[in-house]
Specification:
15-stranded parallel sheet; 404 residues; mainly beta
Length: 404
């Protein structure tokens, strides 16, 4: 089951912030030796980094400045920061510093362009003091062909920032590879997230577009959605995670043309979240799509095969299941508690088709059942409307074990 919270200290909902430098008037310090540039402080004009760069303290890219990081650059971190920045955001409980004490961070209010190439990626080297990149302004930034290893959250995006991230790799992040808050958006394309606690966290009203990327082996959720967030996930491979995509709060992720393979839960929906799942392959998960609490959404035109339960619903959740192909699952659809569903126009084969338990109810129409041991099973006080379904090589078209 997917987690109901992502414990990232920086996840604080607010409307505005105040940048405070730990020491007044600090500027970029640069010293050269052994082909390594040492950097910390404020960048107030257009600047280029290349070669080997060692960060000795927080770096602030000011609002009118642009920092460009050239292909092949390797960024190291000092063991302890010599300069620290505070970024204060007001909230109901009082002011809060979103930055991490004792970590070295790049704070971007201007532009950051990291321009790696396939043969010469930019690399951020793992270090206990690696604090990542924090995007705050609305200026366009880009990260391409960049490798991040370790860190709590290597990239954090706030405000209305819409950074574009492509062809990059995030490995072993302690909390999440990327986190989005406020009204943040932008795009992630052709990137890989591997062995992070969460790959991508999306909160508040954030709505990034995530496409053609791989989310692999997350210890918790691959893509975690909460608040009123609405990410769009297209053409991704989501494999081997505890939960592939987890949606809580009143989030509304849309998932198109993606492969969701070998996860604990392929997609988990709870609280009052609502999902759209269309044209996906959902295969070999312990649970394919799991709706609970007041979760809702649509699963349509997808292939669901060799899962434990392909689609299941509990509590008072309300899925719509339309036009899918179910094959090789232990159960195609399981409803329990007070859940309700519309199940129509599906092609269903496998051990068990549709099972209703407890007080669940469903409208089951225009489905095609074949090679099933049982097409529909009703237990407890469940109820169903059955209409215009076809049966072929089905041993038991209806098993009714309800309480009389």
């Amino acid at each position: 089951m997917a987690p109901k919270s992502i414990k990232i200290r920086a996840m604080k909902k607010t409307l505005y912030g105040l940048l405070l430098l730990a020491a007044a008037g600090i500027a970029v310090s640069a010293a050269f030796g052994s082909c390594r540039r040492r950097q910390s402080g404020s960048i107030a004009s257009d600047t280029v980094w290349k070669g080997r760069v060692k960060l000795t303290g927080d770096v602030v890219v000011e609002r009118r400045a642009a920092l460009t990081v050239e292909a092949g650059t390797i960024i190291y971190y000092a063991g302890k920061a010599d300069k620290q920045v505070r970024y204060i955001r007001e909230e109901a409980s009082g002011p809060f510093n979103i930055l991490q004490n004792e970590k070295i961070e790049i704070l971007v209010e201007g532009k950051l362009n990291i321009r790696g190439r396939a043969e010469k990626p930019v690399k951020f080297i793992e270090s206990p003091s690696f604090g990542g990149i924090v995007f705050l302004g609305n200026n366009p930034s880009e990260i391409s062909f960049t490798e991040f290893t370790g860190g709590d959250v290597p990239v954090r995006v706030y405000g209305e920032n819409k950074v574009v991230i492509s062809n990059s790799i995030f490995r072993d992040a302690e909390l999440a590879g990327i986190g989005y808050w406020d009204l943040a958006g932008g795009k992630i394309t052709n990137s890989v997230f591997e062995n992070c606690r969460h790959a991508i966290g999306v909160s508040d009203f954030a709505a990034p577009e995530i496409s053609s990327s791989s989310v692999l082996f997350s210890k918790m959720a691959g893509i975690f959605c909460e608040g009123n967030s609405a990410p769009v996930i297209t053409g991704c491979r989501i494999e081997g995670n505890n939960a592939g995509i987890a949606a809580g709060g009143i989030s509304a992720p849309k998932i198109f043309s993606s492969s969701i393979l070998g996860n604990g839960a392929g997609v988990s929906v709870w609280s009052k979240a609502s999902v759209v799942i269309e044209d996906c392959r959902i295969m070999k998960n312990v649970s394919g799509v799991f709706f609970q609490d007041e979760g809702a959404g649509t699963v349509s035109n997808s292939l669901l095969s060799y899962n434990g339960a392909a689609v299941s619903a509990a509590a008072v959740s309300r899925p719509v299941i339309d036009g899918n192909v179910f094959t090789g699952n232990d159960s195609a659809v399981i409803l329990r508690d007070n859940s309700s569903a519309s199940i129509s126009n599906n092609t269903i084969s496998g051990k068990e088709g549709i099972q209703l338990a407890e007080l669940s109810r469903a409208r089951i129409t225009h489905n095609s059942f074949s090679d099933c041991l049982t097409a529909v099973k009703l237990t407890n006080r469940s109820s169903a409307v059955l209409q215009s379904n076809s049966m072929s090589a089905v041993k038991n078209t209806l098993v009714d074990e309800r309480v009389k």
